[in-house]
Amino acid sequence: MSIDFELTAEQKKLKYGMREFAQEVVRPAAERADALTDPQEAFLAMKPAFEQASAMGLPTSFLPKKYGGGGLSNVDFMIAAEELCAVDPGFPTIVLVNGLALMPLTWFGSEQQCEKWIGQATSSGRTDYLAGWVVSERGGTANFDHPSPTAGIQLVADHDKANGEYVLNGEKHWPCNAGGWDLQGADVNLCIVRTDRTKGGKEGLSAILVERGTPGIEYEVIDKIGHRTCQNVTMTFRDVRVPEENLFAHGDGDLVINRNFTWSGSVASIAAVGVARGAYQFALNWARTFTGGGARPIINHQAVGNLLTEIAAKIEAARYMCWKAAHYMDMYDSEGQALGAMNKTFCGDLMQSVVFDCMRIVGVNAVDKKFPMEKYYRESLIFPLYDAGNLAMQRRKAWGVMADAEFSPDTFVDCDPLQFKKSMEGYGVMAEVG
Ligand SMILES: Cc1cc2nc3c(=O)[nH]c(=O)nc-3n(C[C@H](O)[C@H](O)[C@H](O)COP(=O)(O)OP(=O)(O)OC[C@H]3O[C@@H](n4cnc5c(N)ncnc54)[C@H](O)[C@@H]3O)c2cc1C
């Protein structure tokens, strides 16, 4: 019997160590930050907690040991992330995005690029090192694999061969961490660019690393209703010159997007579970203690008891799906595009409604800002929308895999490998250009 859901002694240590860090360090900082009206100040208020997390090795924990990272498995990262998210999901998003910026090098970069850029993150000796993942655009992210060069990604990188550089022009909207602590840029930003103006999304995209201090970039912070402790920005690029050796995945930027949002999909899923668990813990305690003027606590009402069992079952099921997806991705170096996408859509959508069910248990007091439920609700609204929105990007990815003859309903339960291919992309794009 090889199926085993029991945490090892090390995993329990990780879980409870992370819970203590979340409650003692992240919670007070996040409560202060969430209440600040200026979004950049909110992000900055998390810097001391981030520095403590860095001293523990958290922002580089999932990077390969070979390049100085912690070599943490996806499954172990799930266990740690749930604990942080049960307190505040914005803070671990800062940590996660460091990974989204650097993990693609391990899949698509050269050995030299991995040593240089991942090495810089793991051995800088600094505790405030930040990396950004820069893909989303105002004019549409979900259509990044559209066959027209004028749809999808429009940040253009023209090759100036004579000077050995790429010249970037355009705009990005929503990247996390990318502005850095001082709005002068993260230490490095991994940008998805169009390197061929004549080709569509499956053929014309690449990835390029833009170092802090590169002239020609402006950053403007976005104010948002949830995940206020992480930073999102609009980035404007005007004739930004980047050395050509910083480019990788030439013509395969689409594959970088799909694999990266697969790796992060399970983390976003467990983040949704973490937030729902936090809301459930509060609602359960409320139901056991609040009488509503009656003789006994409201948990004794059948309606309340029934709903609580449904809430608990959904959270348990969602968590185990996250562990399964993470386990599969540990087996195949994060090639699990359909399972990762199904994990993200299932958990993101379901946990959002579970948080509302928890509010129904608490009743009207759930909207009183002195209780944590209103924050859990604002946080839960983000899950179906971010990290490659559920409605199009993630579902289209799973759909494309399922349409392939190599996919079978037994693929994931049998833990069989399944290589993601360009032919699985482009499902659901409308080929004509408006
Ligand atoms: C907290 C947070 C953190 C984030 N971090 C980052 C980050 O680090 N880096 C980054 O680059 N981005 C980041 N984002 C942005 C985010 O990941 C994506 O931009 C977003 O998930 C894509 O949104 P969308 O699906 O609404 O895309 P859009 O392209 O804006 O689509 C808008 C609508 O059109 C629909 N649609 C478009 N095309 C199709 C189609 N072909 N078929 C069906 N429907 C379609 C979509 O489903 C959606 O309903 C972050 C966002 C948030 C809130």
UniProtKB/TrEMBL annotation:
Q: Is this entry keyworded Lyase?
A: no
Q: Which residues form a coiled coil?
A: none
Q: Taxonomically, which superkingdom?
A: Bacteria
Pfam families documented for this protein = Acyl-CoA_dh_1, Acyl-CoA_dh_M, Acyl-CoA_dh_N
Entry keyword annotation includes Oxidoreductase: yes
Q: Which InterPro entries match?
A: Acyl-CoA_Oxase/DH_mid-dom, Acyl-CoA_Oxase/DH_mid-dom_sf, AcylCo_DH-like_C, AcylCo_DH/oxidase_C, AcylCoA_DH/ox_N, AcylCoA_DH/ox_N_sf, AcylCoA_DH/oxidase_NM_dom_sf
GO biological process, alphabetically ordered: butyrate catabolic process; fatty acid beta-oxidation using acyl-CoA dehydrogenase
GO MF annotations, alphabetized:
acyl-CoA dehydrogenase activity; flavin adenine dinucleotide binding
The record's listing under Gene3D superfamilies reads:
Acyl-CoA dehydrogenase/oxidase, N-terminal domain, Butyryl-CoA Dehydrogenase, subunit A, domain 2, Butyryl-CoA Dehydrogenase, subunit A, domain 3
Q: Which residues form the Acyl-CoA dehydrogenase/oxidase C-terminal domain?
A: 252-396
The Acyl-CoA oxidase/dehydrogenase middle domain sits at 148-240
- Family stated for the protein in its record: Belongs to the acyl-CoA dehydrogenase family.
- Tell me the protein's name: Acyl-CoA dehydrogenase
Species the sequence originates in:
Pseudonocardia thermophila
